[in-house]
Every structure is written in structure tokens, then in C-alpha cells.
């Protein structure tokens, strides 16, 4: 991977023209950090700010993390044509009931998804590029009618979560997808000193199935906040913020997968104002170059 190009793409300078916080715009100026910005409060877990121990710029922090994450992987894995297949144990809560199940998920950008859940019975769900569907007890139903609004919302959230994972599994790609990076105050995140950087997505309405509130065009663009360990440069967490919605992911148990990428084996997911994870994932295997056929995202 061309780390020099990544750093150059993220060279930043302070710009105080954006209301509400100190924004940083892309330029060729020096990448030396001159000040940190206080974290704009958002719902979710409260994090204690801690004094910085370095003067690294957002570009330098991201470059260190991208290098640590890539490990011995083939640069071609960071292709924009994201594909992944994961085997995992999932725990979540539905209708006041805690559920634990084995799961398999396939994903192909931008929105093809297939999930197989195995608990007391086997359920399959997905989006084949045209419509959402569910397979249960040998029968397939499609999420096409007004009675399926909530099912479509849940499926969209699954797509959003997986797409966000795909983004942060390859930090070297973020220079093309996220701009206006700034460094926020360092925090103690779950017992570890952590750098915090935040940028603005180049695309509007990306990352969530529902649109952000209308109004200021910049406000409609999602923001991506990254939490990166100061010592190991590992990705500790990320938060995708759009309008009054946010999706928080926390990562731990990082290991090198068969393709040489450092990936977290334990993932906790919080939505909006949740104080505790609504879903936890323990990864058993993860591949970024599975072979999919036309039927890989269809019922059956």
C-alpha cells in the first residue's frame, strides 16, 4: 500500500469557518497538530478526556493505524469492491428475549447481503439487489408490502453495519471516502489511552438507511469518528453519526486473519442512545475475498 500517498491525501490545516466545531480542510499544508478539539457530545457511552502525549496530526494517526492494520496483507484486499464472508456467534435482544445463535454472513458492496442464523431453528435473510427476503421453515417471503416496513428497516441496518465494518477494516481507503479530518481530545476508552479523529463523509445519506434531517447540506453528510489505541495503533472503535442517529462499534481481541489483516474477534454494537450493546459478535472466521455466485444472495 502506498502509505505516503495516504498521508499526502490527508494533509490538513485548521479552518475555523465551520459552525459548531473546528473543521479541517484538505490541503497540502503541514500535518503537524497545533491543537486538539473537544469531542462534540453524542449519545452512547461516556468517555473521559485525557491529556495528549504527542503532537501527531490526524493524517499521521490514521497512517500509523492503517499500517498496523494491514500487517502482512495483500494491498489488493483493500479494493473498493468490498466482499466479505464471516462465521460468528451473535448475541442480541429481541422482544425482551436474549438470543444467542450461530451466524454466517455474506456481503458484497454496496448492498448485497445474506445472513444465515441457527438457533432453535434455521432462518435465512437477505437482499438480492432487488428486494429483501426471509426464508423460514422451508418457505420464502419477500419484504415488499407495507406490512414489511420494520423488516426492511432491520435489513437496512444490517447492511449499514456490515458496510461500516468494511470501511474501517481497511483504513487505507478512508482518504478517498472521508474528508475534513480533525483530531479530537484523546480519551480513556474502555481502559486504554486512545487517539480520536473525526472526518466528514464525501457522500450524503451514506451509512444509514434513513435520510438525515433536511437543512444544512453539510449537516446531512455523515461523520465518521475513529478511536485508535495510542500504544498499538489498533482500531478500538468507531462511531458513524448522521443527523440525530449514530451507530457505535467497539472492537477487541485483534488477531491476524488468514489473509494477513489484523481484525477484531469481538465486536459490540450500540445504536443511538444505548448505554449497553444491543448486539455482540464473536468472530470465528473472516474472509475478504470469498467467491460468490449469482445465487449467493438469493433464498434457498
Portion in beta strands: 35-45%
Oligomeric composition of the shown chains: single chain
Largest sheet: 14 strands, antiparallel
Q: CATH superfamily name?
A: Lipoprotein localisation LolA/LolB/LppX
What do the pLDDT scores average to? Answer: 79
Number of strands: 16
User: How many separate domains?
Assistant: 1
Order of H and E elements: HEEEHEEEEEEHHEEEEEEE
Radius of gyration: 19 Å
Distance from N terminus to C terminus (CA atoms, Å) equals 39 Å
What is the annotated CATH architecture?
Clam
Describe the structure in your own words.
The protein has one domain: Lipoprotein localisation LolA/LolB/LppX (outer membrane lipoprotein receptor (LolB), chain A). It is built from four helices and 16 strands. The strands form two sheets. A 14-stranded antiparallel β-sheet has the order 3-10-11-12-13-14-15-16-4-5-6-7-8-9. It has a two-stranded antiparallel sheet with strand order 1-2. β8 and β9 form a beta hairpin. The N terminus is likely disordered. By secondary structure, the chain is an alpha+beta fold. The relative contact order is 0.18. The protein is globular and about 60 Å long.
